[in-house]
């Protein structure tokens, strides 16, 4: 399949997921309207929060499903939409935890509520409280309905129960990973590289790669071996993706990544690169720069040079490459059909391409 | 059935619900342990958060179920436990919204985390952030698993779908009510009595009375008429309960209610009594007292006298009595069997007894 074909297929799958979500939100808004104008408005904000994404997780569901011979793409779109709502719930609540009012430079739910209230003359701290409250509620609704959408997919027992078990696994792991990440941000000591990899796996790889792929496989009636292998692939490519994402969070180009390349440095975010650097002599200087709230552009450049010089960047790149290659090897296993390899190879390649 | 028999039955039903929750938390803690000591600890805190309650909502499920001839009390206990987890999720997130670190004078999840961190030398604001973060995550886990427990009850389709619809209704309404309540706390204008009743219904009555009763009825295979009537009964008795609860929040005896009788006055909580008082000449003085953060005990007494003198207390009592009596009338309808009347009459009587 050509790269253009892949884009077209990905686009039409995303469109199917969009249609499921549109229907869901349309029904929810109608249902909400009699219970208050603000409540209807909240659902509208939640809908807007789910729009414009790349639908990555749903596409993982559908790639595994199609690659294993699945043909009921409607059911797959429902399951995919379920993971998209789970993703929405997690990032909305993540922003509550971090007291963030913007995401990727745009007001999130808290931010939209806060700004709206401030425009109407409400004091900032009160407006922020309202925003955070709305975000807690909105995240709850998204989370509850992630579960609901699996039920609404029309899938029968026992497949339904297996899908719900996988969604449960996604939630359970994400909560564990989020808690570890919160602990990292509070603990003055630097975690080990292994601990960070564990956190990245639990917080992101499980719900973004492993479980969507497994859900797609289960939906397609795949064997236990295949489901397990897809989970392994998802774990390894997911970890690779996160490591690379953190490298780009310091070294990337902002237009390409959509994120600033100074934010993580100023926050002192615990990443594989930073944990490695902490074990080198360069840390004597780096520890003054990493986590410096008002880090200047020049100081950021200095930090980047040190991270390269002490081998931290190369270490992270190598680690990511190792995980990505292990993931690719999974696809070469005998019980993985060619059609599934065709679907998932590009995913692994995309990650590898982001590694320098 | 004598009052002693009622207590015994209620006690044994609560014990069955406790057993379901104990099993659930035991499994969850075992599952959590490999993902981090703190994660296992979080599950332990969540479990502790669900203990010690009166199991009111599960008892509503089981009362309706038993009163309609249901005999599989194990299944009813699962459905009841589901509502108890929903309740836990809502109060945990309510405390996040209000940034409360104690509930009924005891540290809640945020408080327990915060205090633990402070004891270990962590700065208070950082410790509070960690506490709030843990509470967001814990609430998410409780919410997700409220849904799960219905599935784990062993109930088959289509009853399972109807139970999940009812749980969905509980979540949907609670979110709407919580949002209205947040708006109340921010809006400088006083809402109408009708608006407060609507909020109390959505925020509390639906998930505490209406839907648990309906779930029990559905589980017992009751007719649509019976399910609807139980919903009506639940709405009316739930509203009565909330109105009385708010009256006791100002006039009650602290040992009896377990709540302070100055908190609501200092907070300026929007209640039926306060909304009514706002429409009387007494508001000219009351508006200086209601919402006064440092209201003294003497000033609180003055406020109470004014609330009585202007008729606000009597209005609230009458309104509650009216709802409670309407609820009792529902139980007299022909399609309500005597066994169900026997189960639910005491609930209505308990509410009426709390009205002066």
Automatic annotation (TrEMBL), chains A, B:
User: Where is the signal peptide, in residue numbers?
Assistant: none
The protein's required cofactors: Mg(2+)
Q: Does the keyword Transferase apply?
A: yes
One MF term in the entry's GO annotations:
geranylgeranyl diphosphate synthase activity
At the top level of its lineage, which domain of life is listed?
Answer: Bacteria
Q: Which residues cross the membrane?
A: none
Its Gene Ontology biological processes? isoprenoid biosynthetic process
Q: Say yes or no: keyword Metal-binding present.
A: yes
Sorted keywords for this record are:
Magnesium, Metal-binding, Transferase
**What top-tier enzyme class does this entry carry?**
transferase
Look up the EC number in the record and give it.
2.5.1.1, 2.5.1.10, 2.5.1.29
Spell out the PROSITE patterns in the cross-references.
POLYPRENYL_SYNTHASE_1, POLYPRENYL_SYNTHASE_2
Name the protein family. Answer: Belongs to the FPP/GGPP synthase family.
Q: Which PANTHER family match?
A: GERANYLGERANYL PYROPHOSPHATE SYNTHASE, SHORT CHAIN ISOPRENYL DIPHOSPHATE SYNTHASE
Official protein name in the record: Geranylgeranyl diphosphate synthase type II
């Amino acid at each position: 399949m050509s790269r253009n074909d892949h884009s077209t297929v990905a686009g039409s799958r995303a469109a199917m997921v969009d249609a499921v979500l549109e229907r869901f939100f349309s029904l929810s808004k109608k249902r909400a309207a009699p219970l208050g104008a603000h409540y209807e408005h909240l659902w509208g904000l939640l809908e807007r929060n789910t729009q414009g994404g790349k639908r990555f997780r749903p596409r993982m569901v559908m790639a595994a499903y199609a690659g294993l011979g699945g043909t009921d793409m409607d059911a797959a779109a429902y399951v995919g939409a379920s993971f998209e709502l789970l993703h929405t719930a997690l990032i909305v609540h993540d922003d509550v935890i971090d007291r963030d009012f913007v995401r990727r430079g745009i007001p999130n739910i808290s931010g939209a509520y806060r700004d709206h209230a401030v425009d109407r003359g409400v004091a900032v701290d009160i407006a922020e409280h309202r925003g955070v409250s709305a975000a807690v509620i909105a995240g709850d609704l998204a989370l509850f309905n992630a579960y609901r959408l699996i039920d609404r997919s029309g899938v029968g027992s026992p497949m339904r129960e297996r899908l719900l078990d996988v969604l449960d696994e996604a939630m359970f792991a994400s909560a564990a990973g989020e808690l570890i990440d919160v602990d990292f941000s509070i603990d003055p000591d630097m975690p080990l590289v292994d601990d960070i990899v564990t956190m990245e796996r639990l917080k992101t790889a499980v719900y973004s790669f492993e479980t969507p792929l497994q859900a797609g496989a289960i939906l397609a009636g795949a064997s236990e071996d295949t489901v397990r292998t897809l989970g392994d692939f998802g774990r390894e490519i997911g970890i690779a993706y996160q490591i690379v994402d953190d490298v780009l969070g310091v070294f990337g180009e902002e237009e390409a990544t959509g994120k600033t390349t100074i934010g993580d440095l100023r926050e002192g975010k615990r990443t594989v690169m930073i944990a490695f650097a902490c074990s080198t002599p360069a840390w004597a200087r780096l520890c003054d720069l990493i986590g410096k709230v008002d880090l200047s552009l020049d100081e950021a450049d200095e930090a980047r040079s040190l991270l390269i010089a002490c081998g931290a960047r190369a270490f992270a790149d190598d680690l990511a490459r190792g995980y990505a290659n292990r993931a690719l090897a999974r696809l070469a296993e005998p019980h993985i059909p060619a059609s599934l390899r065709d679907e998932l190879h590009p995913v692994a390649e995309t990650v590898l391409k982001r590694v320098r």
